[in-house]
Amino acid sequence: MSRIVEIVHAIEGYDPDALHVDKARAAIRACLAPVRDVERVPVRAALGRVLAEDIVPAIDVPGHDNTAMDGYAVRFADLGADVTVLEGSAEAIPVADGAADVVTCAQAFHWFDPAVALHEMARVLRPGGRIALVWNTRDDAQAWVAELTGTVIGRSEFRAGGVNATSDRVDESGLFGPVDRASFAHVQLLGREDLVELVRSRSQCAVLPEDQRTPVLERVESLFDMHARDGVLAMPYVTECFRAVRR
What we know:
Rossmann fold, four-stranded mixed beta sheet, single chain, 9 helices, alpha+beta
C-alpha cells in the first residue's frame, strides 16, 4: 500500500466516497518533500525546472521594435482605470452576444480549438463586425532562410500549410464572408549573437543534448558568416494578415 493511501485511510472520519478537499490536500502535502537545493544554470538549460525565486529582467524584453512573438505580458496596473480586463479564453469569451466590432489575435490562434473559437468570435461580434488575424513568419522563399527554418529552428506549422491553413478554417466555418488577405514584407536586423540566441532559445534547440546542440549552433554561425553584411544580418519576415466580416 502506498504511503498516500495509508495516510488517507488514517484520516479521522475517512469516507472513500466523500473526502473533503482540504483533507485531501493535507494528505498530499504530507507525502511531499519541499525542494531545498538550489542550483544556478543557464536559462537555456532551465527547461522543466522550478525557479527558486522570481527573475526580473534588467532590460526591456523583448528588446527589439520588431519581434516574432505570439504576444506580450502586461501589468494590469499600467492599463489605466478606464480599461476593463476580463478573464476568459478564445473558446469562452466573457463578452455578451454582439458586443464587439472587431475581434483580433495573432499567432496565438494556432493554440485555439478553431471550430469552437470561431463560433465564439462570431457570437460576440455584431452583424457586419470583423475578425482580424495576423501571423509574422520568416520569409523562407530565400534558400538560406528555408534552411534555417527547416533544419535548424524547425518549420512553422503555419508556414508548412501556407496561407490557406488559416483562411480555410474561417471559410469552412460558414460564419464569415470571404477572407481578405494581405502580406507585408519587413526585416529584422540581427548581430551574430542575436541570431545564435534566437535559435538557442527555441525549444527544438534548447532540449537537445550539448553534443547535438553544438553543431546546430555552429551551422547557425556559418549561415551568419555567409549572409551577413558588415556584421549585420537582415532576417526577412512576412506579416500575413487576414480579415473577414461576420455574416
